[in-house]
Write a structure and sequence with these properties.
Layout: H1 3-29, H2 32-39, H3 45-62, H4 68-88, H5 92-111
Length: about 120
Protein backbone atom coordinates (compact mmCIF):
# COMPACT_ATOMS: atom_id res chain seq x y z
CA UNK A 1 0.00 0.00 0.00
CA UNK A 2 1.49 3.32 -0.96
CA UNK A 3 1.95 6.30 1.30
CA UNK A 4 -1.10 8.19 0.02
CA UNK A 5 -3.51 5.39 0.97
CA UNK A 6 -1.82 4.94 4.34
CA UNK A 7 -2.33 8.62 5.12
CA UNK A 8 -5.97 8.55 3.95
CA UNK A 9 -6.64 5.39 5.97
CA UNK A 10 -4.96 6.92 9.03
CA UNK A 11 -7.28 9.91 8.81
CA UNK A 12 -10.30 7.62 8.37
CA UNK A 13 -9.21 5.59 11.40
CA UNK A 14 -8.91 8.75 13.51
CA UNK A 15 -12.38 9.86 12.39
CA UNK A 16 -13.85 6.44 13.26
CA UNK A 17 -12.11 6.40 16.65
CA UNK A 18 -13.30 9.92 17.44
CA UNK A 19 -16.89 9.17 16.45
CA UNK A 20 -16.87 5.85 18.30
CA UNK A 21 -15.49 7.42 21.46
CA UNK A 22 -17.91 10.35 21.22
CA UNK A 23 -20.97 8.13 20.76
CA UNK A 24 -19.76 5.62 23.34
CA UNK A 25 -19.25 8.38 25.90
CA UNK A 26 -22.73 9.75 25.14
CA UNK A 27 -24.17 6.29 25.81
CA UNK A 28 -22.03 5.70 28.90
CA UNK A 29 -22.95 9.04 30.50
CA UNK A 30 -26.63 8.69 29.56
CA UNK A 31 -27.05 11.74 27.34
CA UNK A 32 -30.79 12.46 26.96
CA UNK A 33 -30.75 11.88 23.18
CA UNK A 34 -29.18 8.45 23.63
CA UNK A 35 -31.49 7.48 26.46
CA UNK A 36 -34.49 8.53 24.38
CA UNK A 37 -33.35 6.61 21.29
CA UNK A 38 -32.41 3.41 23.10
CA UNK A 39 -35.34 3.45 25.52
CA UNK A 40 -37.76 2.88 22.64
CA UNK A 41 -35.90 -0.40 22.14
CA UNK A 42 -36.22 -1.25 25.85
CA UNK A 43 -32.58 -0.57 26.76
CA UNK A 44 -32.18 0.19 30.45
CA UNK A 45 -29.64 2.76 31.63
CA UNK A 46 -27.31 -0.05 32.70
CA UNK A 47 -27.58 -1.74 29.31
CA UNK A 48 -26.91 1.60 27.64
CA UNK A 49 -23.81 2.06 29.84
CA UNK A 50 -22.57 -1.41 28.86
CA UNK A 51 -23.18 -0.65 25.19
CA UNK A 52 -21.31 2.64 25.59
CA UNK A 53 -18.38 0.88 27.26
CA UNK A 54 -18.17 -1.66 24.44
CA UNK A 55 -18.30 1.15 21.87
CA UNK A 56 -15.48 3.04 23.59
CA UNK A 57 -13.45 -0.16 23.90
CA UNK A 58 -13.94 -0.99 20.22
CA UNK A 59 -12.85 2.53 19.23
CA UNK A 60 -9.65 2.14 21.24
CA UNK A 61 -8.98 -1.34 19.84
CA UNK A 62 -9.01 0.06 16.31
CA UNK A 63 -5.88 2.09 17.09
CA UNK A 64 -3.59 -0.90 17.54
CA UNK A 65 -2.57 -3.24 14.69
CA UNK A 66 -2.98 -6.43 16.77
CA UNK A 67 -6.53 -5.57 17.87
CA UNK A 68 -7.54 -3.64 14.74
CA UNK A 69 -9.76 -6.40 13.34
CA UNK A 70 -11.56 -6.98 16.66
CA UNK A 71 -12.15 -3.27 17.18
CA UNK A 72 -13.64 -2.87 13.73
CA UNK A 73 -15.73 -5.99 14.19
CA UNK A 74 -17.17 -4.73 17.48
CA UNK A 75 -17.79 -1.24 16.09
CA UNK A 76 -19.48 -2.58 12.95
CA UNK A 77 -21.58 -5.00 15.03
CA UNK A 78 -22.79 -2.14 17.24
CA UNK A 79 -23.67 -0.02 14.22
CA UNK A 80 -25.42 -2.97 12.57
CA UNK A 81 -27.41 -3.55 15.76
CA UNK A 82 -28.65 0.05 15.68
CA UNK A 83 -29.46 -0.26 11.96
CA UNK A 84 -31.49 -3.41 12.67
CA UNK A 85 -33.44 -1.67 15.42
CA UNK A 86 -34.17 1.22 13.06
CA UNK A 87 -35.28 -1.30 10.42
CA UNK A 88 -37.67 -2.93 12.90
CA UNK A 89 -39.18 0.52 13.51
CA UNK A 90 -39.23 1.19 9.74
CA UNK A 91 -37.17 4.30 10.42
CA UNK A 92 -35.47 4.83 7.06
CA UNK A 93 -33.94 8.14 8.21
CA UNK A 94 -32.23 6.38 11.13
CA UNK A 95 -30.87 3.70 8.81
CA UNK A 96 -29.54 6.28 6.37
CA UNK A 97 -27.83 8.16 9.22
CA UNK A 98 -26.05 5.01 10.43
CA UNK A 99 -25.01 3.60 7.03
CA UNK A 100 -22.02 5.94 6.44
CA UNK A 101 -20.51 4.83 9.75
CA UNK A 102 -20.86 1.17 8.80
CA UNK A 103 -19.33 1.88 5.38
CA UNK A 104 -16.48 3.78 7.07
CA UNK A 105 -15.62 0.68 9.13
CA UNK A 106 -15.73 -1.52 6.03
CA UNK A 107 -13.44 0.85 4.10
CA UNK A 108 -11.00 0.94 7.00
CA UNK A 109 -11.03 -2.86 7.14
CA UNK A 110 -10.40 -3.06 3.40
CA UNK A 111 -7.33 -0.80 3.59
CA UNK A 112 -6.11 -2.51 6.80
CA UNK A 113 -4.09 -0.87 9.55
CA UNK A 114 -1.48 1.54 8.14
CA UNK A 115 1.20 0.34 10.59
CA UNK A 116 0.61 -3.35 9.91
CA UNK A 117 3.50 -5.12 8.20
Amino acid sequence: MNLFFKIINSVLILVAVYMGFKQGWAMFTGKPEMVEMFSKWNFSKNTLMINGTITILSALLILFPKTFLWGNFLMAAGILLIICFHALDRDIKGIVIELPFLILNLVILYFQHPLQK
